[in-house]
Amino acid sequence: MGEYAVKLEYLRYMLAISKCGSISSAAQKLYVTQPYLSKCIKEVEHELKITIFIRQNKGIIPTEQGHQFLLHAARLVNEMDSLMNLYDNREKEYIEFSLSTVRSSLVMDCFLQFLDGHAGENYTKFHIREGSNTAAINDVYTHASCLGIVQIHNAEHREFLARLKAKNICYHKIRSLDRQIILSIHHPLIQAGRPICVEDLYHYGLVRYESGLLFGNENADNLWYNTLVDLNRIPNQILVSDRASLNNILAQTDYFTVGTSPSLKQEDVHNIISVPLNDGADKTSYTAEMGYIHLENAPLTHLAHQFIKMLCQAYA
Q1: Which of 214, 250, 265, 298 is the one with CA 20 to 30 A from 225?
Q2: CB atoms near residue 10 (< 10 Å)
Q3: Which is more confident, 141 or 59?
Q4: What is the value of pTM for the model shown?
Q5: Element (H, E) at 239
Q6: What is the pLDDT of residues 268-297, one digit of tens each?
Q7: How far from chain centre, in Å, is Cα 194?
Q8: Strand partners, 103
């Protein structure tokens, strides 16, 4: 295989196909024909001697080799886009900051403070993505984000750091996290005015993120679902994919969830509250921590340091 044999345009095509989940949908988005995209896939697979996608009834999904290919493809595309933006923005000096974080109301509060601090600036490009630990790692690795915020449960700490080292990603601890029960300020358990025990929770429903049972793939909150309560004893469960849905359900129902530190204006803005659990258990078995990540060979920018300072102060 010759050097740079795969066209950059083809890399963009493969990433679009993966995102859309089907060749036909990607073809419509890219304004090309479906046969042409199929031909591009075959050319790339033949050139690299791998299988990138497998076809299913409902579309296509990447193979294990495909996942690795797409990860590196995204990194190359993002690096090229960053290079071109250096010259596209010569006439306008943009202030740019990109963040990928686990779902956290407190991190979002800090991002809003960060925006407010730059309200008077012209030509800003700020990007934030909320998701899983894995998404944050991949975004930092592919240069989609300069800074990542992750949460690590003690049970996966060594494995997690090994994953980062393999991708030349640095990790810095911000602080340890205490588990909390999050529920409406009008919840019967709050109105009762006494400490909440585990047995109290089994009378109510649980709302959690849909990927919460994937070990090592989500934030620490989700691992606590299993270490905190017996899910088989929870009468009702709601699975959500975003923080806004989670907060709305908590504010307007008697459901609860598991979290960490409360956001800055949690009670006033969302009508929810975080309270400690009075379970009497050994809390060291539930410990977790939050930290930030960045590429080893990519020093943090002034804006990244500024955001980290805000986050550390919020968790002080």
Answers
A1: 265
A2: 17
A3: 141
A4: 0.71
A5: strand 237-240
A6: 888 999 888 776 554 545 578 899 999 998
A7: 35
A8: none
